[in-house]
Structure prediction request, 364 residues.
Amino acid sequence: MANPIDLRSDTVTRPSQAMRQAMASAEVGDDVYSDDPMVNSLEERVAALFGKEAGVFTPTGSLANQLAIRMLVAPGEELIAETNSHIVRAPWALLAVSASWGAAFVLMKPAIERQAVNSFLATRFVVAVLAMVILRPSVLQKLNRELILKGSLAGLFLGSGYIFQTLGLARTGAAITGFVTGLYVVLTPLIAALFLKERIRAFTWFCVVLATIGLALLSLQGWSVGVGEALVFISAIAFAAHIVTLSKWSLGLDAYALTVVQLTICAILTGVISLGQGYETPPDAGVWGVVIFTAVVCTAVAFIVQTWSQAHMTSTKVAVILTMEVVFAALFAVVFGGESLSLQVSIGGILVVIAMYLIVMKEA
Prediction:
């Protein structure tokens, strides 16, 4: 064939100039209500070619794959797939992201003992922003007033969460920090109910009670509450508020550009605080290594992997795998951080993880 048409991937094919002109002049409508004449015509033509009653247009090959799997494979059944196929590799890639986030708790613990918390965070976020811009320079062209305003407010919640989380990490163990941080999963529906007037069902309240008992077991030291655990709990509230903010405002905005804006605000927020306290540069190669790991691997690369994985998996599976961050934090803290978990802390952590999973599965 002189001019083969490559149909192996929706991201490989590039539209010609004539195709672009056809798209620009095409009559459009709302496909959700079957009001797009071009999509209707395409579906009818393809259905006729294959002798089917009707067809459905999917904008990406990943969506078409997921639809085919859902139609042919019932929950609980097995699917044979090629080793390097996206649906096999995506979960493992996302699990690696969760593992890197869990490892960050253990690695940051000694680093923030040698560099002030806000100085560490400011350095981390500046490096993260630079890494994301270098990886995709075109992101700067996607910035606009709406994206900057919404991203800035979300960034304030995100930055506050990281500040309180890291301050808490400096005062308690990495495992407990991971468990308490995981409470944001349970707190998110509560904040959504408070500010977005969403209804809280009895099942959610059960998960809140379960998580509260777990938090008590994690943080109570006799009849007093640990300062570190209290600071991390405040960070969980901030992270939950951040999720609610994004769920309300992120629709229609470029996710990569929105992340760059949020991280920039985090860098400014921690940078101003660190300058007021007297900014400290990373004192040695070890701290610089942690800065680069958390900035590049845990932030820039993790975002790209997460975005790619979510295109090949259901949102529920993504949420379940990401909650493994808490488990990895505890595992690495014990194996590599030399921490030991008492029976009280272990039970508290298990209750928090159970509450997280119940909330995630209920949202499915």
Q: What stands out?
A: Residues 35-63 form one domain. Residues 114 and 284 are 9 Å apart (CA to CA).
